[in-house]
Amino acid sequence: YDGQLSAKHYYLNSIWFIIVTFMSVGYGDIVPNTYCGRTLAITTGIVGAGVSSALIAVISRKLELSRAEKHVNNFMADSKLTNQRKNAAALVLQQTWLI
After folding, report:
1. CATH class of the 1-64 domain in this structure
2. Most buried in the list 33, 41, 67, 93, measured by CB within 10 Å?
3. How do residues 1-32 score in pLDDT, each as one tens digit?
């Protein structure tokens, strides 16, 4: 930047930089020039990766079936399989009587 930006613009640019770095996007439109800024960017990127992975873990845990839901799902699958076997057995008996 050429130094003609106001303090408000520098503040908004720094917020933009932190958000982009935190989200691990890294557009490259704003880059840190000092070692302190680079250290802050690296730290922000690491924290952003950790928070993103924790968020994904929480969402996947919420979408996972509970133990009771798994039990009901397995019961329904077994019941459906049992009904298919009963229907197959009935068809065999019907075919046997027709012969």
Report:
1. mainly alpha
2. 41
3. 556 778 888 888 888 888 888 887 777 778 88
